[in-house]
Amino acid sequence: MADRYPLSWPADPVRWLSPAGCLTAWVAESGGAVAGHVCVVGGVSDPAVAGARDLATVSRLFVAPTARGRNLGESLLATATAYAADQSLQLMLDVVDYGGPAVALYERLGWRLIDRRPANWTAPDGTRLPVRVYLAPNGRDASAPD
Ligand SMILES: CC(C)(COP(=O)(O)OP(=O)(O)OC[C@H]1O[C@@H](n2cnc3c(N)ncnc32)[C@H](O)[C@@H]1OP(=O)(O)O)[C@@H](O)C(=O)NCCC(=O)NCCS
User: I need a labelling partner for 124 at 20 to 30 A (CA). Which of 1, 4, 45, 97 fits?
Assistant: First the structure.
């Protein structure tokens, strides 16, 4: 995949697309071909949203480089967000903090930055890259007042 996503090409890409806990997934099509993907992973916990019940993450969001800039990413994210709302899931995500288009997209759509931390996985060079953690619009972190 272009532009560093995923940072390490998985040994089994199909398995990578359906991580443990994957509740559901969608693809976007362009010209009859798959051009993007997103999934929602449930049963997660995170210290930045301690006490949150039914927490889920957006995962494996990408759009093929040739199909970008046509709102497919926004549509995939909106679909995942609508699913989470329907299932009463609180949705979050993390993203590598290198100033790529994903951060711009999340912030444009109102996702709220709630933490910055080292990734819980290692890059090919063994380092833990900084990630940003976002909560979906209307989501509440533990520190938010009632
Ligand atoms: C993040 C990503 C999914 C966005 O997909 P997309 O379909 O291009 O998203 P959208 O079209 O809805 O919005 C992309 C933004 O780039 C702008 N854009 C315009 N032309 C563009 C082009 N040719 N290429 C990329 N972006 C373009 C869009 O207007 C929009 O602007 P804004 O959000 O800064 O206001 C895509 O860039 C991607 O797959 N990146 C690599 C994987 C990745 O980082 N995934 C996130 C992991 S957490």
Answer: 45
